[in-house]
Amino acid sequence: MSSILHYYRETEPPHSLLPSVKEQLKSLHLAEDADAIQSIETESCFNVQTASVFAEDQKTRLEWLLAETFERQKLSLEKSAFPESDGTTSLQLEYGPRMSFASAFSSNAVSICQACGLSTIDRLERSK
After folding, report:
1. pTM tops 0.90, yes or no
2. pLDDT in tens, 48-62
3. Contact yes or no for 106/121 (Cβ under 8 A)
4. I need a labelling partner for 109 at 20 to 30 A (CA). Which of 7, 45, 83, 101 fits?
């Protein structure tokens, strides 16, 4: 039985992201929209496809691989770092690879997982 787990990790956006987005909007004559943007927050979502249920030690090993070294508390299972939006003051976008195409990231991640004894992982994709 194959299942997909979703791990979310809060990430720090590049310092140049907000000014770049605003500049791009202004170049498209959307200055009012650019001025409305106050901040940009980012997270990575790890979509883990497994062939079977994890044992507790396997789950711990996977979480160790996915978490940032000094910020383990920023990794969560099945819960985004961002609160649900009502759509009036925030916009949430997610982009990543198509489910029909395994990325190079996934191939490398699965190889690392298998080397760490996580042989039940078939695919591991990251979206942002």
Report:
1. no
2. 999 888 888 999 999
3. no
4. 83
Q: What letter represents residue 60's amino acid? A: T
What is the per-residue DSSP string for 9-36? EEEPPPTTHHHHHHHHHHHTT-HHHHHH
DSSP classification of residue 68: B
83-118 pLDDT, tens digit each: 776 666 777 778 888 778 889 999 999 999 999 999
Residue with tokens 């990543």: 96
CA distance 88 to 76: 26
> Could you tell me if 112 and 65 are in contact, meaning their C-beta atoms sit under 8 angstroms apart?
yes
The structure tokens 């997610």 sit at 94
Q: Give 10's strand partners.
A: 43
